[in-house]
Amino acid sequence: MTTARERQRAHQQELLTLLREQLSSLEITTVLIVDNTGQPCLEVVDRHFRTRRVYVQTAFHWFYWGDQLDERTSSLRLASAAKRISTAAREGWRQGEQEPLTVDLSKIVDAYRT
User: Fold this and answer.
1) Is 109 left (phi over 0), alpha (psi -120 to 50) or beta?
2) From CA 47, how far away is CA 12, in angstroms rounded?
3) What is the pLDDT of residue 52?
4) Treating both helix axes as pointing N-terminal to C-terminal, what angle do 4-25 and 78-91 enclose, rounded to 10 degrees?
5) Which of 30, 75, 101, 107 is the most buried (most CB within 10 A)?
6) pLDDT value at position 6?
7) How far, in Å, CA of 73 to CA of 65, rounded?
8) pLDDT tens string for the chain (114 positions)?
9) Considering only CA atoms, which of 34, 94, 45 is closest in space to residue 66?
10) β-pair partners for 52
11) What pLDDT, on the 0 to 100 scale, is given for residue 67?
């Protein structure tokens, strides 16, 4: 029997595999890996040969490659997501380290309390 976490990881890997196929058709270099925390992700190379990792946030249906608002896109439309990520890679990733995406769920809970 598989756990919920195992099913989630399998779903993330499936979405990333589909995204990888789309990005490959757009001539973007990608490698599907599992990071040191066990999260599946795509390593995507930009025009300056810098690598960013693209992750899946399944609860919000996002692909993301940083913590900024313009560093995420919907995972519900793969072709559109691949186009957005390929554009970002062709323009070059922003300078600096890749920051992890954090979602403050307390803000969401507070919004429903009022």
Assistant:
1) alpha
2) 26
3) 94
4) 60
5) 30
6) 92
7) 9
8) 679 889 999 999 999 999 999 999 999 999 999 999 999 999 999 999 999 999 999 989 999 998 888 999 999 999 999 999 999 999 999 886 665 655 555 555 566 665
9) 94
10) 44
11) 86
* Residue reference for tokens 């040191």: 36
DSSP state of 1: -
One-letter amino acid for residue 32 of the chain: L
β-strand pairing of 40-45 with 51-57: antiparallel
Q: Which helix (H) or strand (E) holds 106?
A: helix 105-113
Token pair 């058709």 in the structure block, residue = 25
Tokens 């954090």 locate to 102
């599907």: which residue's tokens? 32
Q: How many residues does the chain have?
A: 114
Identify whether the C-beta of residue 54 lies closer than 8 Å to the C-beta of residue 32: no
DSSP H or E segment with residue 10: helix 4-25
Tokens in use for 59? 């609860």
